[in-house]
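Lab notebook, bench 4. Still working through the backlog of constructs that have no structural model yet. Next entry is a single chain of 114 residues. Request: give me the structure tokens for it.
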Amino acid sequence: MRRRDFITVGGAAVAWPMLASAQRSFRRLGVLMGTEPTDAEGQARLAALRKALGLLGWKEGSDLETLVWWSTENTHIEMFAMQIVQLKPDVILSNGTPGSGRDWSKAWPNPVPI
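Model written out:
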């Protein structure tokens, strides 16, 4: 094996773990729950979401940040939705009748996956 070939293969072997970790960048998920934080069903839904994301390989704090807001009041939901959008998450998930009944995509000029 020539020296140049060895350096190329060796460099690729050293860089591979860095490239593999760089492929999956940090993501931010905004969650708007249309229940109170003490609601058992809302907690179960959020737990199921986190479990499913974990099974797909997403790790909270490592490559994922989940931001959660809770409210059953429409005025709070609108305020929380604006706060979520200002944080520029990669995805917004709305759960429950108050939050899900609106088309949030028309409220802001920049596209956000909802």
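Notes after review: Residues 3-23 form the longest helix (21 residues). The helical segments are 3-23, 40-55, 74-86, 97-100. Flag for follow-up if needed.
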